[in-house]
Every structure is written in structure tokens, then in C-alpha cells.
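From the pipeline queue, job 12 of 40. The input is one protein chain; the requested action is below.

Action: predict structure.
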Amino acid sequence: MDEQTPKSAQRPISDRFHQLTDDSTEKYHALKRLMVETCGVVSTRFIRGTVGIVATTAAFSVPVAAQATQEASDVMCSSGLGPVVTLAFGMITIGMFLLAAFRGAMAWLKMGSARSDKKKEGRDAARGAVITFCGAWFFPLFAVVLDKAGVSTLSCVNFANIM
């Protein structure tokens, strides 16, 4: 009787390895094409290219941006626009704090009602008051971020002369 040898013994390992990697690569590319076609997924090659372009642009535009913010800062302080922006942010912030207090008071009154639908309205109004209170912090923080970025708003105002 003939002795049979397994197929794996007939082929060298390197051929089997190359065939396996080729099959895996083909399956990967087919799956990637399917994902791009069906889901609109962007290929990683395009993402890497875009990131490279953005990084290069950012690296070379920093000196230009620094010069532009210095010029903007000078214009803000010399024209008097910096104090006006600071005053506007301050007034909006105080107005939002007052609005949050008013909404909180109205919510407190509605939650004291005996009717359940009024209590639900009161809880919703209390939620709105908290959101308004938290949103009031956006404007002073935005002014600080502008100031730290180099566009002078707060640094133009001499707070010692206000009081």
C-alpha cells in the first residue's frame, strides 16, 4: 500500500506563509473597501495625509498668528474696544446670573404647589436655572481665554480705577 504524505509536507513553509498572508491582506482590503462604500468611512491613508497637512500648516503659521494677535491686541487697547468688550461680557454675565436667580425663584414657587404637574414644571424650571447659572460662566471665561491667547480685553482695563 502506498504511503500518503500530507499536503503540508509537500509544500515548503514559506509558500504556505506567503499564501496565508496574501489571503489575509486580500480579506482586509476587501473589508476596508466594503466599509468605505457602505458606511462612508474615510480611509486611514486620507486621514494621515490630512493630519500631516494640518500639522505642517500649524507649525509654519505660529509666527504669523503671534504677530496677528499682537496687532489685534494693540488695536483693542488703543481704540478702546478692549474695555467695551470687557464691559459687555460683564453685563451679559450679571444679566445671566440675575436671570438664573429669577428662574430659580419661579421654580421654587412652582415646586411648592400641591399639583403634580406644577411640581414637574418647577423641576424643569430649576434645571433651566442651573443651566443658565452654569452658562453665565462662559462669558468671563471666554474673556480670560482671549486675554491668554494674546488678544487683550481684560488687560486693557485698569480695575484699580473702577472702585
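Job complete. The two ends are 111 Å apart (CA to CA).
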